[in-house]
Structures are given as structure tokens and as C-alpha cells.
Amino acid sequence: MRSVRPRRSRLRVPGVQELAHRLDRAERRIAALEAESACRWVMTEYMRLCDRLDASTPMDELADLFTEDAVWEGRGSRYGSAFGRHEGRHAIVAFLGGYRGPPAHFALNVHYLASETIHAADARLAHGSWTMLQVSTLAGGESQLRSARIEAEFRLDFGRWRIAHFSTANLFSQRREHPWDDDAAAAEPDRH
Q1: pTM for the full model?
Q2: How far apart, in whole angstroms, are the C-alpha atoms of residue 165 and residue 163?
Q3: How far is CA 27 from its chain centroid?
């Protein structure tokens, strides 16, 4: 009877250096994904707070989303002249606080973000870009529909990702005489 020899596996077993390299690469990829997720949260939180800029808005939470030396600016002919450039956390919060009133500038304000790209350049810097749609009704009843390109630089700052540079450039704007929200019942299909 002939003895059967076990077949040798053709799988190559990686060496310690190769495993260390793979682990290092995986850790960098995970760190980039975590950074991108944190930056997404910062921008979402910023928009959530801006949706409700009034006397109840926690401006300290809004301020905490920016680095101490942050820049907030409108770009292009429409937004550059309307919003200007604000340097430093306190100047940005003062600018945004102007929308709080009294009376609050907005009766309704909703920001929608789409077409997101976020890239973490390294362990401390990231860049994000969005297309924003803003639906708002002013305190006086006139409504607006605006779209803008949002660009943001983020920096890891004292263990938290924060906005270091925020810019907005108008893509289009449309005014409307009547409020977006009214008392009309929600349209329902005929169920008979």
C-alpha cells in the first residue's frame, strides 16, 4: 500500500513585515473613514443649528464647531457682497448671531445637503464639498429657494474635528411672495 503524501498548499504565508505593512495601511484607512464621518457630523450639526437661528439657538455649540482661527466667507458676486468674510470663531458667531433677531430673520429655514465629497488628506486635515439647497421663509412672509456650493476645510483641533474654513457660493436664488408652509391639509389619494 502506497502512502499518500499531503499536498503542499500553494498559499503564501505573509511575513511579519508584510503583515505589519498591511496593518498600518488598514489603520490609516480606518482613521480616514473615521475622520470623514466626524467631518460629516460637524457639517450636519452646523446646518441643523443654522436651520433654527433664533433666541433659543445654543451659540456656544455653534461656536464649538469652528477652530479659533476659522474663516467663514461668501464667494462670488452675490454671496461675496451679501455675506462677506469673517475671520475667527468670535467673528463668525457674531455674524451668524445677527440672524437670531429679535425678531428672528427666518420664520422657516431648512438646509438640504447633497453631492457630498469628503477627503481626509491626513490624520489632521480634511476637505468637504456639498451642493446645498436652502428653503426659507423670512419673518416678513417672503420665501426664498437658494442653492449654493459649500466648500469646507476641517482640522483636528484639540481632539475634535472642526471647520477651519467655510465658503459658500451661490448657484441660483429664487424669491417667492408666499410662505412655503401653509395650513392646507396634506394631499391624500382617493381611497374609495
Answers
A1: 0.86
A2: 6
A3: 24
